[in-house]
Amino acid sequence: MAAAQRGGLVAGYLLLLLLAGCRARIHKLTLKNETRVAVDLNNFGFYANGTLDVKMISLRLPEQLVNYSLFPVGFTLSRSRVNGVLSYTAEETETCPLTLTKFTNNEPLILFLIDITTLSVNVRAMGDQDNLLIAKAKAEAPKNLRKARDAPANDDAAVTPVAPHTPTTQSAETKELQNNPKVESVGQKSVEQPEAAAEATKVEENEFQLDKVKQLTLALDKVDGSYNFSFHMVVGLLAEGLYSLKFHYCQNRVPGIKFPYSLAVEVTEKNPEGYLSAAEIPLSRLYIGMAGVFFTAAMVWVYTLMKHRYSVFKIHWLMAALAFTKAISLVFHSINYHFINTEGHPIEGWAVMYYITHLLKGALLFITLALIGTGWAFVKYILSDKEKKIFMIVIPLQVLANVAYIIIESTEEGSSEYYLWKEILFLVDLICCGAILFPVVWSIRHLQEASSTDGKAAMNLEKLKLFRHYYVMIVCYIYFTRIIAILLKVTMPFQWQWCYEFLVEVSTLIFFVLTGYKFRPASNNPYLQLPQDEEDVEMDEVVTESGALEGISKVKKTCNGRERQKESTL
Question: Which of 131, 250, 388, 452 has the fewest CB atoms within 10 Å, i.e. is most exposed?
Answer without folding.
Answer: 452
